[in-house]
Predict the 3D structure of the following.
Amino acid sequence: MPKRSQPAQRKPRMDAQRNRERILEVAKDAFARSGASTSLDDIAKQAGVGAGTLYRHFPTRDALLEAVYRTEVEKLAAAERKFAQTMPPIEALRAWMLLFVDYIATKQIIAPALNTLVGGPSKVYEASRAQITGAIHALVGRAIKSGEIRGDLDPFDLLRALIGVSNVASGPDWRQSAKRLVDILITGSRSII
């Protein structure tokens, strides 16, 4: 009997990929605005797709929440590489830290729902932790090498301080406050000349 080969994995059609990306974008905004219990049918409608399209990509609310979270982490990782190639080291670090503030906002909204996943969020968080720590280590290392950041700065300490910025995410102007805190962190990390 002849062996059957496995069908080749096809890339999603462009329109299907655009639909998926649009759903994720709308879902992130909807979860930020109304919480994790936002109507999935409303998300589909706002994304300009049918409910069937949404459920084909994300069969459950948990799947959509996890995808939004993973997408934000992937954006952080990609931004580190882009910023490192296009900006001076200190500016790349600052830009990434400001992007991290947005990630914190998304995580605060989605984390309670991720905690309800069967088996907990640990697998989701483990993968994201590696990407985030890798990004901050690369950015801080580059800034230290350039002499713009103190040589004794531990990237993980800076990450902890940045996570502390999330504690200001309670008022309507928290993002402006968080941006000021990022600038304070950058100033405190600079090399003493």
About this structure: The helical segments are 14-34, 40-47, 51-57, 61-86, 89-114, 122-146, 155-164, 174-189. The chain has a mean pLDDT of 83.
